Amino acid sequence: MFCSRKKSLEVERIVKANDREYNEKFLYKDNRIHTSKYSILTFLPINLFEQFQRVANAYFLFLLILQLIPEISSLTWFTTIVPLVLVVTMTAVKDATDDYFRHKSDNQVNNRQSEVLIDSKLQNEKWMNVKVGDIIKLENNQFVAADLLLLSSSEPHGLCYIETAELDGETNLKVRHALSVTSELGADISRLAKFDGIVVCEAPNNKLDKFTGVLSWNGSKHSLNNEKIILRGCVLRNTSWCFGMVIFAGPDTKLMQNSGKTKFKRTSIDRLMNTLVLWIFGFLICLGTILAIGNSIWENQVGDQFRTFLFSNEREKNSVFSGFLTFWSYIIILNTVVPISLYVSVEVIRLGHSYFINWDRKMYYSRKATPAEARTTTLNEELGQIEYVFSDKTGTLTQNIMTFKKCSINGRIYGEVCDDWGQKTDMTKKKETMGFSVSPQADRTFQFFDHHLMESIELGDPKVHEFLRLLALCHTVMSEENSAGELIYQVQSPDEGALVTAAKNLGFIFKSRTPETITIEELGTLVTYQLLAFLDFNNFRKRMSVIVRNPEGQIKLYSKGADTILFERLHPSNEDLLTLTSDHLSEFAGEGLRTLAIAYRDLDDKYFREWHKMLEDANTTTDERDERIAGLYEEIERDLMLLGATAVEDKLQDGVIETVTSLSLANIKIWVLTGDKQETAINIGYACNMLTDDMNDVFIIAGNTATEVREELRKAKENLFGRNRSFSNGHVVFEKKQSLELDSVVEETVTGDYALIINGHSLAYALESDVKNDLLELACMCKTVVCCRVTPLQKAQVVELVKKYRNAVTLAIGDGANDVSMIKSAHIGVGISGQEGLQAVLASDYSFAQFRYLQRLLLVHGRWSYVRMCKFLCYFFYKNFAFTLVHFWFGFFCGFSAQTVYDQWFITLFNIVYTSLPVLAMGIFDQDVSDQNSMDYPQLYKPGQLNLLFNKSEFFICMAHGVYTSLALFFIPYGAFHNMAGEDGRHTADYQSFAVTTATSLVIVVSVQIALDTSYWTVINHVFIWGSIATYFSILFTMHSNDIFGIFPNQFPFVGNARHSLTQKCIWLVILLTTVASVMPVVAFRFLKVDLFPTLSDQIRQWQKAQKKARPLRTRKPQTRRSSSRRSGYAFAHQEGYGELITSGKNMRAKNPPPMSGLEKTLYNSTSWIENLCKKTTDTVSSFSQDKTVKLVLSQKSWRQDSAANRKNLFFGLQFSLLPFPAFEIHHNHLEKEIPVELEDGAQYRLKMLH
User: Fold this and answer.
1) Rounded to whole angstroms, how far apart are CA atoms 663 and 686?
2) Three-state DSSP string of 3-32
3) What does the pLDDT read at residue 15?
4) Distance, C-alpha 574 to centroid of its chain
5) Is 134 a catalytic residue?
6) Beta strand ranges found along 249-393 (DSSP E)
7) Contact 585, 595 (CB under 8 A)
8) What number of helices (H) and strands (E) belong to the chain?
9) Could you give the CA distance from residue 50 to residue 44 in angstroms, rounded to a whole number?
């Protein structure tokens, strides 16, 4: 209480270095973290409170209390308390186990070692013992223990390099630098121990990119900003050591402030079951009231005639009071309509589904020996209902590995491979890679297949040389040599690393730099250029330039940047080359590559001196300094001469394109929430086909004020609605959705594909209360949404927005600590065990190693879990309504006396023994279609999104089915037993014989029903279903035997009845008639439904039986195409570039640091069977005659493995029609022949060609 009050009042933080006693008076939190929910003392009360929030558990506790009252209980108390304790105990053990692993994870982090300056010497301390104000020493590649003020480092001028992947998902390095007054402390322990500076700064908050404070030391004050702070979660890179002072620790660190709280997650089925339990309880009250009224009437009119036979104290029994007691007695008897075994079974089924996920070999990543893991067992069926996926980008969709793929130089494309006829062909691993005779330091893993580029270099093409020279000079890369003499590049952006590495491999090697020079090796010759000016990159310029003087004395300006920016600054003489290069850029963009334009300018010496003098004056002025500098940059970056363009591939993870395509077909909307810049996010969107040129429009929201954002959202909505309403061909459908919360939000579903892109600044305004409805309405009409430059907290806010106002099931997937809050906010959180640590995995509900496994998790495991759970619940409610309502009908014939139809042991064992295992087998193992067909037909996923298989209407259908079955179970035996005599001529219409007949009929009917419900039969299903019937008869004959009666005469009164009743043929005829009457209407209804109104699942099941391996293809609807969207790949870091830092010389090292690994370069290529088929088809058509038939053999396996991009271009516009049976037709506009086609597995197809 006190701590929370203190925290709310903290408006600023005061920290004194090396003085724990001074800092302790402020009660700052230590560095211990807690992600667990319970402690040993709080586990029992909190866990029980959470469990009894479940309405069913509270309901059964209430029934248990009723059963302890002997006046109203006709059943013994153990029938309720044993299952209830079992369920609560199992759930508690599971929750305790989950929390134990959270404690274990916390302890691993809290017990990490760090060197802390204590009593004038460095001592190893656990992270959890670090206090605010302590001075910590960090070494290279160490995680940062707390939020630190950087004091000094091993690098010149107190610089250090950090990796912030845990915070913002970026793996490129960032620079932090200490104050000059503290950098002089160096590694002198005595001076550091005497450091007693006082920091006054902002209170703990979640803003990762902002810090304000003041350091007071030695009588002077020094302002602090974010560049002086190293945050917890960062990793020290390329810096031997550094010292820092702890400002924020533990829960107060910015990383933990962004983590969000662990929330108790329930599935939509859980919430529905809570509602249904309330409804059922109301239904029971109605039944109890009817029977209680009946009892009062019966006691008043008929009961008086029997009171003379009762004891004297019963004679004065009041009929109203009798009805009151009977009401509670029937509440107890009829409570089995929702037995506690339902919840036991649900937990067991979910556990089984979780093990299936853990054991799935197709989700096992062999490279890292990482299996998929279900870290929770309570959310499996919700995996089958996902409507929105919120995904991180870096490390989730991409590998963050850049590869130089193609370039355009002086109007010629390099990087394409052509065949002998000049036609483009795919690059494959079988192609011979380019030789690197000109570059002995070339990276042999670098793959570039076009030998024409090397020929141009060797022939001395001046444009090619100038192009590569620019790549080697215009960048912010730092170079070092490791102990083996190999060049190691430190890159601020992976894009820059890819371009500089490409130049290196092509003979133009960047060697080193100083603040005044850049040295490169040009085809074996060392050349040093004088660096005259560095025109740095920022988000508004979208370009960078360097001005250098070559050894011949010529002054050159080299520039690279976004093509839309550079093309505006070209000399008019470039018009023809501009057109050609623009076409090449469009081609590169169509392949999902990240592009940059490359240009240069020759500068006159006199002009440059005048311009440089103005630049120096602008740098020294204090009035409008930035505007003046920007104007000078604009002045000199004009009349450029175009050299060409580069195309770099941001390597996607394997299977991302196929996964995105498949999830889109399943009507799952994918939103990308990334901390990266807009250009990068857009490029990745295009690369993985979330954004395409086929889209009708892409809306970009980039306003810097609330008014601008509101106006841009309004214009986007007007554009969308206006464009669609102008159509007159029926392509637009407007559909009103239900009101969400109190506000009536009307969603108009627009056919056509749209995308929305919004940055973090605009998103902050858009999430305000008066704008967020507009944002949500627009975003939900778009097929794809990309939010860039977002903070971890904004990611969570976007998820919460959709959860709150769309009432949709959400899934968040990420791999870094910056994704934790999003993962915790979504209904389902998925962590990828990638390059950015395990924070996302530890906070997740499910984890695996690759994004592509999400497709199988949702479409197979999620869908199966949902279908199984729905079938289980429908059957369970049906079974228990049929079982329980027999008591209700019997009440009208037993004087409303609360007499049970069945004997007490049958009531106890029915749900625990006789019918538990068959329904468990169906709930765990059942499959309506195979896993491959679940992947091949994503449309099968839609019933889960629409919640069609178990909802309130389905519940009432199950209830009606159960009511009908209970009527048959009671009245058919009751009518048959009327005036019926056995084969021996004796009367058989006694209560015990009726009870045995009804109970036997019930067991057989529900067993036959579950056999009808089972779609996928295993040995376990057979054993459980038919074994349960056998178990019933075994227990029945045992409990009705003379021996058991002799031992427990009061507990087993039905002695000899089973043997007597079930040896009568007429009894078996009654059982048969009851079974047929109960089951035949269901069989007839299902037969007609499948025959007349088959679902897609029904069709595929029929198709599976006929042809299990054939796979029909999907139809692609023609779409309105937009103009090609060329994307710039200038994806540098969040902040401005390092131009000023480089020219200042502060980052130049006195000695080489420890070596680090270079960029990994891999290139995946595959042969397209579609290309071969197209060629074969063309050849076939050219020689086709009226009486000639050509047979093509297609491999189904190769079709499945071929890329989506190749399928899109199949036969240059051929369309496939999706059929539920193994046949498809391929239509072409210029042909009129049929070609029989056969897959390798023997499935026959027709290739129909039309004029």
Assistant:
1) 16
2) HHHHHHHCCEEEEECCCHHHHHCCCCCCCC
3) 95
4) 47
5) no
6) 373-374, 386-391
7) yes
8) 44, 40
9) 10
Helix (H) or strand (E) holding 1245, with range, is: strand 1244-1249
- Distance of alpha carbon 831 from its chain centroid, rounded? 8
238: tokens are 């390329």
CA distances in angstroms from 566 to 598, 600, 982, 1131, 1132, listed in the order given: 8, 10, 102, 16, 17
d(CA 814, CA 848): 11
First to last CA, the chain: 82
Q: Can you read off the two tokens belonging to residue 256?
A: 């933990």
How distant, in Å, are the alpha carbons of 290, 533, 605, 612 from that of 609? 102, 11, 6, 5
CA distances from 1249 to 28, 115, 762 (A): 78, 75, 52
CA distance 353 to 925: 9
SS3 at position 732: coil
β-bridge mates for residue 839, sequence order? none
Mean pLDDT of the chain: 79
DSSP-assigned states of every residue in 1109-1132: S--PPPP----PPPPP---B----
Q: Token pair of 507, please?
A: 């003979």
CA 395 to chain centre: 13
Distance CA 1180, CA 1003 (A): 65
The mean per-residue pLDDT over the stretch 396-424 comes to 76
Q: Which of 392, 753, 928, 1202 is catalytic?
A: 392
- Model pTM score: 0.70
pLDDT tens digits, residue range 292-335?
999 999 888 887 666 666 554 544 567 888 888 889 889 888 88
Q: Which of 641, 530, 553, 650 is nearest to 593 (CA)?
A: 650
> DSSP label at 623?
S
Q: Helices in 781-894 by DSSP H: which ranges? A: 792-806, 820-825, 839-843, 853-856, 863-891
The Cα 1178–Cα 1157 span in angstroms is 49
Residues 6+ apart with CB under 8 A from 693: 590, 1121, 1122, 1123, 1124, 1125
Q: Find out whether 171 and 835 touch, Cβ atoms under 8 Å.
A: yes
Q: CA Rg, the chain, in Å? A: 37
Whether residue 190 has pLDDT greater than 70: yes
User: What pLDDT, in 10s, does the model give residues 532-578?
Assistant: 998 988 767 888 999 999 999 999 999 999 888 899 999 999 999 99
- Of all residues in the chain, the percent with pLDDT exceeding 90 is 37
